[in-house]
Amino acid sequence: MEWSTLGRPRNPFRGGTHPRNSRLILLSLCLLLVVVAGSLVFAGYAWAKKNITLVVDGKEIALETRVNTVGDLLKTRGIQLDPRDRVEPDLAAPVTEGMRVVVKRAVPVTVTADGKTLKLLTAASTVREALQETKILPGKEDIVAPGPEEEVRSGMAIRVIRVRQVPKEIVVSVPYSIRREADPNLLRGQVKVVQAGRQGKEKQRWVLVYHDGREVKRVMEASQVVTPPVDRVVRVGTLQQVSRGGRDIRFNRVIDVVATAYTYSGNNTASGVPPHHGVVAVDPRVIPLGTRLYVEGYGYATALDVGSSIRGNRIDLFMESAAEARRWGVRRVNVYVLE
């Protein structure tokens, strides 16, 4: 006999998942994936944004950017570069947070050295860097103007002065001194040389300094006297009184002169006095007009006239006649300037 179990029909989903629950789970997983992907995209977007500082021609700009390289940054900013412009860091460098990008434009300068002047476009920061670009190397003693560490400016004129020092030895004369000795036996105003002076010799070592081939100064490093000089010794008269014609004559000084003679010409003297014996024509630069004199061989006289040919230690004595003037002729005499 066959038996059968009576009861509720068997559930086909027992031990599994209802289809409706599966769909919910799948939907939840999809939403989770979307949220995670969105978060990753947002995080990547935020991570790609960088704050940097861009400096162009000395002007600073604070920027937010998402570009990858310095070259991309300059392109997005519309900054065009000349081949001689300088960018730091270089164009291929990756852009990073806090980076400072500096664009230095090339400026025109001139460089003068060795007799030549070069025109140059340079983005060098200093004069030293600009010279390095031109392959002009200053020597240790050379002068660079402006100084090597000066900042390069547009239109700057840079000059390299070549400095050369040349040693030189020379022999020069050493002047002698004049030693004066009072002599009471000589008339005041007279001098007598008792020892001739002689120059000495001195060896000197100099350094001659040249700037671009032109001597600008010389410096004496050492000197040595080879032959000492010999003093010139002169005796100076102090005697102020002489006796002439039985009379003592006191005077301030005596002058050795060349004396000629003249006579009446129809004109008064330069001082307005009619000519007469005792009138002397003089050079006022040597003997002032009005000076009282005693002329050896002539006697007492006064400087009252001048003459076109009377210059220096010359005088012209007035004579009463042409015959006396001829007899006097030309003589060298002492003239005493009276007190």
Automatic annotation (TrEMBL):
KW Signal (keyword) present: yes
All copies of domain G5, residue ranges: 160-240
GO MF annotation terms: hydrolase activity, hydrolyzing O-glycosyl compounds
Alphabetized PANTHER family for the sequence: CELL WALL-BINDING PROTEIN YOCH (PTHR39160), RESUSCITATION-PROMOTING FACTOR RPFB (PTHR39160:SF4)
SUPFAM superfamilies for this protein: Barwin-like endoglucanases (SSF50685)
Sorted UniProt keywords: Signal
GO terms, biological process: peptidoglycan turnover
InterPro entries: 3D_dom, DUF348, G5_dom, Resuscitation_pf_RpfB, RlpA-like_sf
Record has Repressor as a keyword: no
Protein name stated in the entry: G5 domain-containing protein
GO CC term (a single one): outer membrane
Pfam family, one: DUF348
